[in-house]
Amino acid sequence: MFTRAIVKRPCRNMINGLRKDKSLVPDYKTAMKQHDAYISVLEKCGLMVDILDESPEFPDSTFIEDTAVLTPCCAVITNPGTESRKEEAKEAKKALSKYYNSIYSIHDPGTLDGGDIMITRNRCYIGLSCRTNQEGALQLKQILEKYSIESYFVPVKKSLHLKTSVNFLDHNTLVLTAEFMDNPLFSKYRKIFIDENESYAANSLSINGKVIVPAGFLSTLDRINHAGYKTLVADVSEYRKLDGGLSCLSLRF
Which domains can be identified in the chain, with CATH numbers? Predict the structure, then answer.
């Protein structure tokens, strides 16, 4: 059960954010409207939302999930895998210090992005991606072992982050793309398969019995509804241009 979320306002400099396709340029005014609506959806899920001011010096900082890994027992401040984002973690630590007594950090040469971390009850799946390396994963594993949370390493070959393509809903259910459909690490879960043409919607977000689905992916929305979940829809199309999704825009705890 989540009670709070932390979000960070996008800055005008987001147009210079990291992305695979440089031809896609987000519209700042539309992004702000979508951010307001995203906050409203989090509140509909029962969360109190802390809103951090924008940081123009960090174009990608609205994707705050990458800066921390949160469990009921502790917070872990990450060491993002892109040099331009490493300083973002300091603000996350300051914001989380109000709520957590136990705060750890990932250190060089380890790198770790929060988007590569999927926690399912007492298990943590750590994506080994272009942003999270083996050393960062090992550091996180050692921290979580103190709290009896088992960690499993998942090679990520096609996606930016692990949670780009697989996410835990609840009731032992995953929503996932073909990249991870046959992964033996996920064999014990019920699976909701996402078609390739709707792969962006694999980053759907489960909060307190509701599932937030990105707008425009009707097949995915139908499958999640059919599986028995209550759904909400949020338009994050401007953030998609920066390779970001629903989970990237908040820290939930």
Answer: 4-252 (3.75.10.10)
**pLDDT exceeds 90 at position 121:** no
Catalytic residue among 11, 45, 124, 248: 248
Contact 190, 166 (CB under 8 A): no
165 φ, ψ to 5°?
-125, -5
Amino acid occupying residue 116: D
Give the β-pairing of 4-8 and 48-52: parallel
Among 11, 161, 171, 226, the active-site one is 161
CB 198 within 8 A of CB 215: no
74 carries an active-site annotation: no
For residue 218, what are the CA distances in angstroms to 1, 194, 247? Answer: 27, 11, 19
* pLDDT value for 122: 87
Respond yes or no: is residue 171 known to be catalytic.
no
The pTM score is 0.97
